[in-house]
Amino acid sequence: MKENEDYIISQDPTQQSETEWVVILKKCEWNDFVIKFKDISIVDYGHTINYTLDLMYAPKNFEFKDEDQERFEKHCGLICAASIQSFHKRNANIYIDQKTGNRVEY
pTM for the whole thing? Predict the structure, then answer.
């Protein structure tokens, strides 16, 4: 997955904070859908990413079929992982220890 090709990261237009962002899907069957990852956490020493997925925009009258929902969620999971890796390489991520609340440097 490549940022600005397969997905675009943009500031969340519904929020004032620059740290709130959304993802616009591109080059897939869900082209131009807008999603937001909430409550992102990296666990198992960086091997697992947990998050809540919010579908912010889809075409009117769109409904997932059961099998499509699972494929969509997997596709979004790949984008979440790719975006976190991309942000990490640019030193743009801020990591907070969930137990202590302290910032963690990697």
Answer: 0.79
Q: Which residues contact 60 (CB under 8 A, 6 or more apart)?
A: none
Q: Return the pLDDT at 85.
A: 80
Of the candidates 1, 8, 97, 80, which has an alpha carbon nearest to the alpha carbon of residue 40? Answer: 80
CB 34 within 8 A of CB 13: no
Report the C-alpha gap between 32 and 65 in whole angstroms. 19
Rg for the chain (alpha carbons), in Å? Answer: 15
Cβ density class 11-28: b for 16+ within 10 Å, e for less: eeeeeeeeeeebbebbee
Show the 3-state SS of the chain: CCECCCEEEEECCCCCCCCCEEEEECCCCCCCCEEEEEEEEEECCCCEEEEEEEEEECCCCCCCCHHHHHHHHHHHHHHHHHHHHHHHHCCCCCEECCCCCCEECC
